[in-house]
Design a protein that fits this description.
By secondary structure, the chain is mainly β. It has one helix at residues 27-34; strands at residues 8-13, 16-19, 45-52, 55-61. Strand 3 (45-52) and strand 4 form a beta hairpin.
């Protein structure tokens, strides 16, 4: 018999692990919630989820801009 298990989510940004504020929120909503603390998340992309142990990890990746 195969046991199905719901994996907890976590989020990471710039090497910082961010807890899931609400499992019912979509990843875009989580990004919006954390953008108050990390304003650069407003333009970040979301990658994942990647399974890591007992968690699904989503990563927020900053958009690369050009200077000049």
């Amino acid at each position: 018999m195969i046991d199905a298990k719901v994996l907890a989510r976590s989020f990471s940004y710039n090497g910082v692990k961010l807890p899931d504020p609400d499992p019912k929120m979509a990843p875009e909503e989580v990004k919006a919630a954390y953008s108050h603390q990390y304003p650069e998340l407003a333009t970040a992309a979301i990658t994942g989820p990647e399974a890591s142990g007992e968690q699904l990890v989503y990563s927020f990746v900053r958009a690369m801009g050009t200077k000049g």
